[in-house]
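Worked example

This section walks through a single chain of length 173. The input is the sequence exactly as stored; nothing has been trimmed or padded.
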Amino acid sequence: MLASEQGVSRNRYMLIPRTLIFLRRGDCVLLIKGAPHKRLWANKYNGVGGHVERGEDVLAAARRELREETGFTADPSAGSGQGLWLCGTVFVETGENPGIGIFVFTGECPQGEPNPSSEGALEWIPFANVSNLPGVEDLPVLLERIQTMQRGDPPFSARSFYDQQGRLVIRFQ
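Given that input, the structure is written out below as tokens.
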């Protein structure tokens, strides 16, 4: 179906698609502390990930970002245990067009260490310590939800925005 037949126009709500990946190992999660030179999230912890490029689906983008930022592959047929699965989506309301659509993935990584990254320092962090880190604002909320999820659980759906007092609000459905 052509875009014109789908009602696509600049007046519609638009999203920039991004991926966010949290690899788990036991009671730890792989996080990246943004490099000091980064424009966004410098010196703050977050999962790895990035923009979905033209021609990619969200899983292909997540696999590419994981490989680029950590050196890990997410091919479950390789027997590495790193097959990624979609565990949730978050639509971020920016107050203007476009918004941001975050496709959140997780997977198990039983062995190996990440390659150094120009994006920042990669560290295995115990879930219990995440709230004590200088992280992006939604990190503890997302990880609390993801920590106990298992492959096959339905993905969560959420939207985030800032209220009139400038506080982050995340609403899960």
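What to look for: Residues 34 and 42 are 5 Å apart (CA to CA).
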